[in-house]
From TrEMBL:
<dbReference type="InterPro" id="IPR020867">
    <property type="entry name" value="THF_DH/CycHdrlase_CS"/>
</dbReference>
<dbReference type="GO" id="GO:0005829">
    <property type="term" value="C:cytosol"/>
</dbReference>
<dbReference type="Pfam" id="PF00763">
    <property type="entry name" value="THF_DHG_CYH"/>
</dbReference>
<comment type="subunit">
    <text>Homodimer.</text>
</comment>
<dbReference type="GO" id="GO:0004488">
    <property type="term" value="F:methylenetetrahydrofolate dehydrogenase (NADP+) activity"/>
</dbReference>
<dbReference type="GO" id="GO:0004477">
    <property type="term" value="F:methenyltetrahydrofolate cyclohydrolase activity"/>
</dbReference>
<dbReference type="GO" id="GO:0035999">
    <property type="term" value="P:tetrahydrofolate interconversion"/>
</dbReference>
<dbReference type="InterPro" id="IPR046346">
    <property type="entry name" value="Aminoacid_DH-like_N_sf"/>
</dbReference>
<dbReference type="GO" id="GO:0009086">
    <property type="term" value="P:methionine biosynthetic process"/>
</dbReference>
<feature type="binding site">
    <location>
        <begin position="165"/>
        <end position="167"/>
    </location>
    <ligand>
        <name>NADP(+)</name>
    </ligand>
</feature>
<keyword id="KW-0658">Purine biosynthesis</keyword>
<comment type="similarity">
    <text>Belongs to the tetrahydrofolate dehydrogenase/cyclohydrolase family.</text>
</comment>
<dbReference type="GO" id="GO:0006164">
    <property type="term" value="P:purine nucleotide biosynthetic process"/>
</dbReference>
<dbReference type="InterPro" id="IPR036291">
    <property type="entry name" value="NAD(P)-bd_dom_sf"/>
</dbReference>
<keyword id="KW-0554">One-carbon metabolism</keyword>
<keyword id="KW-0560">Oxidoreductase</keyword>
<dbReference type="GO" id="GO:0000105">
    <property type="term" value="P:L-histidine biosynthetic process"/>
</dbReference>
Length: 283
């Protein structure tokens, strides 16, 4: 079997075109969706993600402003800034790019952003809403993954979904969203015993472990759906996923590439959340 490749960049582009029309219509009503991104320090990967977010925002007509702070910025300063943005009725979404420098506690910052402006979907209130299946901002990467599966009408209900990795940003929430779609979900992580058996039993595999070429074609069940969330820079400087794409595509039924897979969907769902927030504010 040769898998069908799910190109996230193509789906993302189509969704962004639809969003652009929606934003145009909102602007006619005087509503300008606005996202504020805060970037602290000069982590090259973070800078590159933020550039991508700004480019995509400008494409769909979402106003985005970037606030850059030095790497020695204090937690107090950042909290005051977030407080100002929480109170600014023109700002619909606030995103603090992670990771943060050591002097700033990530969870304190996440909880300082008002849940109604938390377009990342990281605030405990929004996580709780997601857990109970209520309308909320869904975390962007997991939301993008579910959108990719749905775009191909891939059945989720009743399937064995195995999530490799348990980060707060990807692994945990994507498992929850798959559960909300009635999958039977297994999480695998560094302490999992017999991981190979879990992987072999998976109908849907989400690989978010951060190890280049961790998953090979021979590891998976024929016909499995493979979603690669990894972004690893290898020796030659190129980007590669957590899945050995060439071998896995011979066994899988659907597979996502890296790049052009999950990455562009993450940014697209961020824009979706920002537009959703703008609409909510003006209801
Ligand atoms: N760093 C890596 N991914 C993300 C994300 O989705 N949101 C934020 N705020 N920071 C990140």
């Amino acid at each position: 079997m040769t898998a069908e490749v799910i190109y996230g960049n193509v789906l993302a582009e189509n969704l962004r075109l639809e969003m652009r029309e929606e934003v145009d219509a909102l602007k006619e009503q005087g509503i300008i969706p606005k996202l504020t991104v805060i970037l602290i320090g000069d982590n090259p990967a973070s800078k590159s993600y933020v550039r991508g977010k700004q480019k995509a925002s400008s494409f769909v007509g979402v106003e985005s402003n970037l606030i850059e702070l030095p790497s020695d910025a204090t937690e107090k300063y950042l909290l005051e800034l977030i407080d100002t943005l929480n109170k600014d009725s023109q700002v619909h979404g606030i995103l603090v790019q992670l990771p943060l420098p050591a002097q700033i506690q990530e969870q304190v910052i996440i909880e300082a952003i008002h849940p109604d402006k938390d377009v990342d979907g990281f605030h405990p209130v929004n996580i709780g809403r997601m857990l109970t299946g209520k309308d909320t901002f869904l975390p962007c990467t997991p939301f993008g993954i579910i959108t990719m599966l749905k775009s191909k009408n891939i059945e989720i209900a009743g399937k064995n979904a195995v999530v490799i990795g348990r980060s707060n940003i990807v692994g945990k929430p994507v498992g929850q969203l798959l559960l909300n779609e009635n999958a039977t979900v297994t999480y695998c992580h560094s302490k999992t015993k017999n991981m190979e058996e879990h992987i072999k039993a998976a109908d849907i595999l989400i690989v978010a472990i951060g190890k280049a070429h961790f998953l090979k074609g021979e590891d998976i069940k024929p016909g499995a759906v493979v979603i690669d969330v990894g972004i690893n820079r290898i020796e030659d400087g190129s980007l590669t996923g957590d899945v050995d794409f060439e071998s896995a595509k011979e066994t899988a039924s659907y597979i996502t590439p890296v790049p052009k897979g999950v990455g562009p969907m993450t940014i697209t769902m961020l824009l979706h959340n920002t537009i959703k927030s703008a609409k909510r504010f003006h209801q």
